[in-house]
Every structure is written in structure tokens, then in C-alpha cells.
Write a structure and sequence with these properties.
It is built from five helices and no strands. The longest helix has 21 residues, at 34-54. It has helices spanning 3-6, 17-30, 34-54, 60-71, 78-93. The N and C termini lie far apart (54 Å). The chain is elongated, with a radius of gyration of 25 Å.
Length: 94
């Protein structure tokens, strides 16, 4: 079954004339229809955006520090213990 036959959702976008001209030109350069170009590039941008907001990338030094903190966590400070008590009190009080 062709991809176009499986598409069931439709959307609209309002564009400035110069945006539409640029997109039409870019679609033509890539040999795609206007619609296929819009869908392909919007989907690629959506994937990138989701990855950027759901993935951590650490430099080697930061990664090593993070792993060591997981393996050998520091003892809770008095401020952390106090915050935990306040949180428990607040949750019990709800």
C-alpha cells in the first residue's frame, strides 16, 4: 500500500507569499510536491525537537561525574532532609 493511500489526516497552514514561494522552490529542487515537502520537513523538525527536549548529552567529564554520583551518592545534607520532611508533611496534609 502506498504511503499516500494511508494518509488520513489533513491540516492547513497560512503562509506569507514569500514563504510559499520559497517552499515551492525548495520542493521543486528536491523533486517533491509542495505537500510532500511540507510533511517531510515538518516531521523531521518534529523529531529533532522531541529529541532535543527528551535526550541529555553530556561531555565525558560531566558523564563521569554523573555516573559516580549514581554509584556513590552523597549523604543527604540537612537542607535536603528538611526539604524531604516538609514535602512529606505537605503531601500528608492534602
Amino acid at each position: 500500500m502506498a504511503l499516500a493511500n494511508r494518509r488520513t489526516e489533513r491540516t492547513e497552514a497560512r503562509l506569507l507569499p514569500e514563504q510559499k514561494m520559497r517552499i515551492e522552490r525548495a520542493a521543486s529542487i528536491k523533486g517533491l510536491s509542495f505537500s510532500d515537502f511540507m510533511v517531510q520537513h515538518a516531521d523531521e523538525a518534529a523529531i529533532r525537537t522531541i529529541q532535543q527536549h527528551t535526550t541529555w548529552t553530556l561531555e565525558n567529564e560531566d558523564r563521569d561525574f554523573f555516573i559516580q554520583a549514581l554509584i556513590n551518592p552523597p549523604k543527604p545534607s540537612s537542607r535536603l532532609k528538611s526539604a524531604a520532611r516538609r514535602y512529606k508533611d505537605r503531601v500528608r496534609g492534602e
